[in-house]
Amino acid sequence: MYRSGFVGSGGVVGRAAGLRRIVCVRMVSTSATTPKMAYAELCDRLKEISYLGGVAGLLGWDEQVMLPEGGMTARGKQKAALAATLHDKRTDSKLGELIATAESDVQALGLMEQANVRDARIAYDRHTKLSRELAAREAELGVEGFIAWKKAREESDFSIFAPVLQEIVDLRKEIASVTKPEWDAYDACIDLFERGMTSARLTEIFDELKAGLVPLLNEIRGALEAQPELPSGLKGSEDWDTKKQAELSRQIAEALGFDFQR
């Protein structure tokens, strides 16, 4: 026993040499990671982030549908804590390394995989510019905003909502200033929902729609004035069949491929 474990420290030296070999092998293995291997690990990490994002979404749904008013403050803290945890995962340096490795030979990946890598890069670059504190504050302020908006709607007094709305606008501007400092703040916000879209392009689109829709609407109104017996949705109705509306909504969802079992 002593000879195998301690022969003039030879056993220790032998084990140390073995450890060095293991470390070297691991280092070589890590450095030799291929884009496809990196992509596979990247997907695992992105799935975990997506699952946590789903939890945040569920908390938001419960907040707006089921949660009693007394639980709102605690829910804000919960969502802030989860947002901070998500931020840690979204900004992990290892995630950045995996993206960079996948990008090093992106042509080795399929078109869908390339798109995923591109989106991962865009998200990573944005989140790494955003502080953990800002991410948490954004989540908590969202709950505060909903509380104020709900009360304002119930009392038909939106001055109640004004102070927190101003906080939300200010926070959005601050986030835009750090994530896309070279952009107009509104364009930076639009880009989160429609990548590449700008306020200037939206103005062009709405001008085009206005040019065609306003004359059409005037024509319809003129026809209704001339022939009041014509049926028109413009008049509104107090008798909407909610069951038929629900049926139509379901048919549209089914046509879009929505899975009602998930």
UniProtKB/TrEMBL annotation:
Q: Enumerate the InterPro entries for this protein.
A: Peptidase_M32_Taq (IPR001333)
**UniProt-listed GO biological process terms:** proteolysis
Enumerate the GO terms in the molecular function aspect.
metallocarboxypeptidase activity
PANTHER family linked to this entry: CARBOXYPEPTIDASE 1, METAL-DEPENDENT CARBOXYPEPTIDASE
Name recorded for this polypeptide: Carboxypeptidase M32
Q: What is the lineage of its organism?
A: Eukaryota, Rhodophyta, Stylonematophyceae, Stylonematales, Stylonemataceae
